[in-house]
């Protein structure tokens, strides 16, 4: 008996590929609307995960009140280490948040998951640029991204030229991009499973 998932022009897998190819030709490409909702998901997850990380940090500090002064001295002595830990936490938060955003966009668009993830990331850059322009023209009080820890934003005070500013910008740009692309591809793969199930049903192949 021939396995329904073996390569061949008449196998269910090949038929699925043909159907997907035809659908992609018509409905593929970047879907900016889906990507926008993916970006909203990413921003929401960034806020929630940042708040969770902050709460955990506060909880750890509160669990040892007797050593608060000692901990403060150690923090001053190990500021560089704490900065590295904070950067790692921020990178994890951004990766998970934008993975979720990319997944949402990939699920909504069905095709070209990597492109949907790129579009989610692009929305973040577009909004950051618009907010930076608004803040430069109308005042920094309109820089709403300042309240979103880790959200991509364009620095207006020259901090980008420092080593920490450059590292922060890399984290804020590269990590979300990788997360969004991987999430978009994962969201798209769900639909390939659905497509395969439909073809299997038509051809009578057991799942």
TrEMBL record:
Keywords: Membrane, Transmembrane, Transmembrane helix
Recorded superkingdom: Bacteria
Keyword Membrane in record: yes
Transmembrane segment boundaries: 36-62, 82-106, 118-139, 159-183
Name assigned to this protein: MFS family permease
Organism: Arthrobacter bambusae
